[in-house]
Write a structure and sequence with these properties.
This protein is mainly beta and about 300 residues long. It has one domain. Strands 4, 5, 6, 8, 9, 11, 12, 14, 17, 18 and 19 form an eleven-stranded mixed sheet that branches. The longest helix is centred in the C-terminal third of the chain and has 20 residues. The two termini are about 30 Å apart.
């Protein structure tokens, strides 16, 4: 049975002043919270097992569409994360958590690019927190469409992935800064990104990055180098990482905008350039190469990407 419900706020003491979590105020205390909590389990069927979404709790404008099985029953459960507003403004606070239980296989993606809008006159920041947990024997593919950051945006993104045992994971994050085609570069604002990937509680990859156009590292060759688009793809659980690295180097375009390496059991591919399309195509091509090596299945492009 799938549980779909709206989160109920915890009881509060009427004698204590309560924060206004509504977006209907416009001072420096403005805050609009939304959360989504998902759970997936592998359930036995007559022909094997089927990954089912057994939990979907939400608060505010975060939803999921019904699960799809385009690769066939018993294969990956495709789920689309929906945020109807389409972007984050000052005071927005989004929280997404998903747990993939033992033996389950889930592919999570989004129907469109996310947008990070310019901060309001009070400079109130937004926040987005994503926590993904994969149990032993579980598989997670985290493949959101790109994030577009407008000039003047201020906020923090945190992504935490916790793997247990022999859990496998492949994912990416793509960020485009400003709107160069409209001659609106990312010239002001501040975005802080934090990424944490662990296995059995031990860190595999920890990273903190601040994107601040006025800081020397944003233009310096030792930092962002003035690039307006960046992407990171990771894969954990490959049987032969070096062979996978060599396959990527052989198959992907030989340009100076990307590089691939392996460290602490994690394959990492990075892109730093000025083309959203190039970053997306690179990540999708890498996914198509790595997926058969990671899970023994050819890549099956989510149909939402084709619309």
């Amino acid at each position: 049975m799938t549980i779909i419900e709206k989160l109920t706020p915890a009881p509060c003491d009427p004698c204590e002043p309560q924060p206004n979590l509504s977006g209907h105020r416009f001072d420096d205390q403005r805050r609009w919270a939304a959360s989504l909590e998902l759970g997936f389990e592998a359930r036995p069927e007559h022909a094997g097992t089927l990954t089912r979404m057994v939990r979907a709790r939400h608060q505010g404008p975060l939803r999921v569409q019904r699960p799809f099985y385009p690769e066939g029953r018993g294969e990956a459960c495709h789920v689309y994360l929906l945020h109807p507003p389409g972007g984050l403004v000052s005071g927005d606070a989004l929280s997404i958590t998903a747990r993939v239980e033992q033996g389950a296989h889930v592919l999570l993606t989004t129907p469109a690019a996310a947008k990070l809008y310019k901060a309001d006159s009070h400079g109130v920041a937004w926040s987005q927190y994503t926590q993904l947990t994969v149990a032993p024997g579980g598989i997670l593919e985290w493949l959101p469409q790109e994030t577009l950051c407008f000039d003047g945006s201020q906020g923090e993104q945190r992504t935490s992935i916790e793997l247990a045992g022999d859990a496998r994971c492949l994912g990416w994050e793509i960020m485009a800064l400003g709107r160069p085609a409209s001659d609106l570069p990312f010239a002001s604002g501040r975005i802080e990104q934090r990424f944490r990937l662990t296995r059995d509680g031990r860190p595999l990859w920890l990273e903190r990055q601040v994107l601040e156009p006025t800081h020397p590292r944003f233009q310096g060759r030792w930092g962002q180098g003035g690039a307006s688009v960046q992407a990171t793809l990771w894969a954990v659980g490959l049987d032969d990482q070096q062979a996978a690295v060599e396959a990527l180097r052989e198959a992907l375009p030989a340009t100076p905008d990307w590089a691939v390496t392996q460290r602490h059991g994690v394959l990492l591919l990075r892109y730093l350039g000025d083309s959203r399309n190039q970053a997306w195509d690179l990540c999708q091509s890498a996914w198509e190469i790595l997926r058969p090596r990671l899970i023994g299945r050819a890549a099956h492009v989510p149909r939402i990407w084709l619309t």
